Amino acid sequence: MGKLLEVENLSVEYVTSNIGSIKAVDNVSFNINEGDSLGLAGESGCGKSTIAYSLMKLHRPPAMITGGSIKLNNIDILKMTNKELQKFRWNEASMVFQSAMNCLNPVVTIEKQFLEIFKYHGITKNKKEGLKLSEELLSIVDIHPERLKDYPHQFSGGMRQRVVIAMALALKPKLLILDEPTTALDTVVQHDILQKIYDLKKEFNFAVIFITHDISLMMEFCDMVAVMYGGKIVEQASSKKILHSPSHPYTFGLKNSFPSLKGKLEYMEGIKGNPLNLSNIPQGCRFQDRCFKASEKCFEIDPEITSSGNDFFYCHNPLVNNGGV
Ligand SMILES: Nc1ncnc2c1ncn2[C@@H]1O[C@H](COP(=O)(O)OP(=O)(O)OP(=O)(O)O)[C@@H](O)[C@H]1O
Ligand SMILES: [Mg+2]
User: Which of 64-68, 132-136, 212-216, 230-234 has the lowest mean pLDDT?
Assistant: First the structure.
């Protein structure tokens, strides 16, 4: 499998006059192979959406990319012209935003919204072709083509979300970014929609970046999981490793703050303290004051990367096989 996306040393800052500069993404690197799925986990405010927007170069002021590169099939997205970007978005990569179901235009029928996208991107030659493709896309997400004439309010939240997903897949992108695609929906609908996305992924072989607070849902659907804390990816490993033997104490804590969907009820405990204040990053490890494994070193030196194959973590006192806990 070839490498699809390579993110190297990406840094993104929010520069505001009242609070100064916030480094929301700090020197983050990760890769995704064609057809792979990567989950991006972490508490609210740790920088997940900021990464997602940057990957599409959809970040807007006060966000500024201050360093690094984002390459899709070896082409640096950050160096693309607006015209190149227009082609890149939807064609190469597309994104379903946090609360995307509210992005549909309420006064325009679904059919018209599909046709507008096709026209804008020059996908179909005429209305007839456009209608045919719209019908196909709706049936892909299990919605009857008859519903094309309906307005967004005539759909349930779950259906609206599926419509948005169908739109994101319209150009058969190689990468689909899902930023909390189902958070507003109930658990059963959430699960069904993700199952649908992963069935489609098998069929069309696109890669997925899946952002959610729900790490158990993520572990069920993703091959790899990257765990973010305060603007950094502190650990990345296969879902299996994250589930059974995480190395970083934060990963362990995050995993245990969620009940598992299947199997026995395990002991559940949140992580003490509050998320990191990004405008006041301490010396040493940024998880120091919340970490049950913290030692003196953690307050002085920022840990270096420890890697093995595609897995890596940043910690002075990693957990060993969940022992030591
Ligand atoms: N427009 C903005 N101006 C200033 N700071 C911002 C802005 N947008 C985000 N931030 C800050 O950047 C940090 C990362 O935000 P981001 O939205 O990427 O987090 P997130 O991990 O997606 O959180 P959530 O899980 O709540 O969606 C936060 O500390 C947030 O306060
Ligand atoms: Mg977010």
Answer: 212-216
Domains observed in the chain: 3-92+173-314 (3.40.50.300)
Summary count for the chain: helices (H), strands (E):
9, 12
User: pLDDT tens-digit profile of 36-47?
Assistant: 999 999 999 999
Q: Ligand 1 mean position to 264 CA, how many Å?
A: 35
Prediction pTM value: 0.92
Report how far ligand 2's centroid is from the alpha carbon of 45 (Å): 7
Q: Is residue 143 classed as helix, strand or coil in its secondary structure? A: coil
Q: By the 8 A CB rule, do 194 and 221 touch?
A: yes
d(CA 53, CA 63): 10
Is the pLDDT confidence value at 55 over 70? yes
C-beta of 52 in contact with ligand 1 (< 6 A): no
Contact 278, 24 (CB under 8 A): yes
Would the CB of 140 count as within 6 Å of ligand 1? no
Chain centroid offset of residue 88 CA: 18
Whether residue 263 has pLDDT greater than 60: no
Nearest CA to ligand 1 atom 7: 14
Look at ligand 1, atom 26, and give the residue with the nearest C-alpha.
44
